[in-house]
Design brief:
- The chain is α/β, with parallel strands linked by helices.
- Helices cover about 45% and strands about 15% of the residues.
- The protein contains 11 helices and 8 strands.
- The strands form 2 sheets. A 4-stranded parallel sheet has the order 2-1-3-4, sandwiched between helices. A 4-stranded parallel sheet has the order 6-5-7-8, with helices on both faces.
- The longest helix is centred in the N-terminal third of the chain and has 18 residues.
Amino acid sequence: MPDNSHPSAQPRRIVYFLSNRTAITAETLGHSLLAQFPDIDFSTTTIPFIDSEDKAQRIVDAINREHADSGIRPIVISTMADEAISSIILKSKALVLDPFDQFLPGLENLLQTTSIHASGQSHRIANQTLYESRIDAIDYSMIHDDGVTTKNYDQAEIIVVGVSRVGKTPTCLYLALQFGLKAANYPITEEDMESEGLPKIVRQYKRKIFGLTTNPKRLAHIRQERRPNSRYASLEQCRYEIKTAEEMFYNHKVPYLNTTTMSIEEIATKIVEVTGLHRISRPQISKMDF
């Protein structure tokens, strides 16, 4: 018989991320919460744009059927400011965690006013200039991906470098989307490794360079999915490239991160912290203020 006393033996828990908008906030909050329970097997489902009471009721019916069939109470992370729709979700047989329900009353009490409880407010364009700056940063990062074009590197706020498949592209796009930074990325090739210096094209922008590296075994696994059984994906080649890149970073005093156990969000946030770059619209706060 299986040993059900160990956390890993617990049954899979069903989790729903629900929202009357994109559900990005529900997913972000939900995954952060679930990550605190690494021994539990979670199965997640995201349902965005729940914009009517009828749709909400159908989803509640499905959640209740899931509970009846499995005998296990589902979990719901809900980010719906619409009170009527939210009240329907709260009647489900799931454990419903709703940040609006948890946090708005406290804010209303402190601010001595009533919130509008309207949907979509987190997505409104409060400042057109900041919005356009972020779009501009995303466009820049996409155009300057993987060294395709380097002619406007003087406009970059950061240039992420590293060998192939260490996460340069998603990191730059996240830096642009969430922090409004113009982030270019440049791949370190075998030709670059033959010389002791930094790649020629980025050498003059040394103060903007930030390196990424990873565990060779992880890199080999990722590359195998792209080019199975190739020299490019061999563990020997990955070891050589990572070792050479890290020596390059060290010798030229380029800050770098080992991203083996880090998410893209963590990588981008750490880069911002290390470099001193700041998210757009964020006040320049000194660490001495804390």
